[in-house]
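Researcher: Let's do a round of design. I'm pasting the structure tokens now; please hold your answer until I've finished.
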């Protein structure tokens, strides 16, 4: 599995969720009950649908994590548990979309889709740890990871989200891991009874080298002709593998965002590294263009203000001066590509975007005209 197949699997999970939510809605509305009662019923059904879809997103993400671990020479990944999800999270989404009395279902579906996507991103982020596990805990984590990988395969198979080929491949992978675990356990028992302490320690060191955690995770934009991405995502994707389990940017994913979190085992080679370089190049070019436009806009604005004030004369009122500046702003916008952001505005956009999970994302590089 690579990042494109992973993104495709997430899309299938979202499609499964949308089909279920809309089928529930059609059945409930056919009952003839008043809309508030229908929405209350659907809110409960939505929680169960989203919780199941989040499990599937977790399952897809641990398979992706395990595949990427093996690319970098590991026997497998140390798989994190499912991220928690509460009914209150669904209720907040319902309230955000108008509440039970005035529920906007299209908006609710968009928010709930983000909840599902976040389960996958959180799984990758939680796979990163700041310190290594002690040997005894590593053995336990290894066994738990095997169980979780098997559970993940079962979830995706039961939901019929994987093709026959993908299902067979994953079954073969689980069987391989079970065989490896059995061999490792047999080796450990032999070593404990027959080998000396030095050999046992060497075995532990070798085993540890085969189960390294990611050093971090990166945000990668999943773009195509119909989903070009936004400037906010480009800014964060251009940063590369700077995110860890403690200092993460999981809040900075807006509604309809298709960016994925990818595990990074080495800074030399990781999925999406080329896309990151392209995003950085595009972001730097946009920043340079914005800086040049800022200087040009300032000159045009100054010239236009002087011209407008000259028309009014020296005895202008405060209101007249404000109108002169407003007209000058329009003239400067027309002469350039629009009023540029100040550096403080750019910083504020990043901070607000991280707090509100995208309410300010995608607004472009210009201020809203008054």
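Researcher: That's everything. Go ahead.
Model: Designed sequence:
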């Amino acid at each position: 599995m690579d990042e494109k197949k992973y993104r495709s699997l997430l899309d299938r999970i979202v499609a499964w969720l949308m089909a279920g939510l809309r089928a529930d809605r059609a059945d409930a509305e056919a009952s003839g009950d008043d809309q508030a009662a229908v929405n209350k019923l659907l809110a409960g059904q939505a929680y169960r649908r989203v919780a199941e879809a989040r499990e599937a997103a977790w399952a897809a993400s641990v398979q992706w994590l395990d595949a990427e671990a093996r690319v970098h020479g590991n026997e497998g990944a140390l798989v994190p548990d499912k991220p928690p999800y509460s009914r209150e999270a669904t209720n907040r989404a319902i309230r955000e979309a108008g509440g039970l009395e005035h529920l906007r279902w299209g908006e609710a579906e968009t928010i709930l889709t983000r909840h599902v996507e976040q389960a996958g991103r959180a799984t990758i982020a939680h796979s990163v740890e700041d310190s290594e596990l002690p040997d005894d805990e590593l053995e336990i984590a290894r066994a738990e990871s095997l169980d979780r990988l098997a559970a993940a395969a079962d979830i995706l198979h039961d939901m019929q989200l994987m093709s026959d080929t993908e299902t067979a491949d994953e079954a073969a992978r689980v069987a391989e891991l079970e065989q490896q675990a059995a061999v490792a356990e047999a080796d450990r028992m032999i070593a404990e009874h027959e080998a000396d302490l030095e050999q046992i320690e060497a075995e532990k060191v070798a085993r540890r080298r085969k189960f390294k955690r990611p050093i971090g995770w990166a945000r990668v934009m999943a773009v195509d002709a119909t989903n070009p991405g936004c400037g906010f995502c480009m800014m964060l994707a251009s940063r590369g593998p700077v995110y860890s389990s403690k200092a993460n940017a999981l809040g900075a994913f807006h509604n309809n965002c298709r960016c994925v979190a990818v595990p990074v085992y080495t800074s030399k080679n990781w999925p999406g590294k080329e896309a990151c370089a392209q995003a950085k190049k595009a972001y730097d070019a946009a920043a340079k263009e914005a800086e040049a436009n800022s200087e040009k806009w300032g000159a045009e604005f100054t010239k236009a203000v002087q011209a407008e004030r000259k028309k009014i004369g020296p005895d202008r009122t405060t209101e007249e001066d404000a109108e002169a500046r407003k007209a000058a702003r329009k003239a400067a916008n027309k002469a350039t590509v629009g009023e540029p952001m100040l550096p403080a505005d750019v910083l504020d956009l990043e901070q607000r975007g991280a707090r509100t999970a995208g309410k300010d994302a995608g607004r472009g590089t210009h201020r809203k005209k008054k």
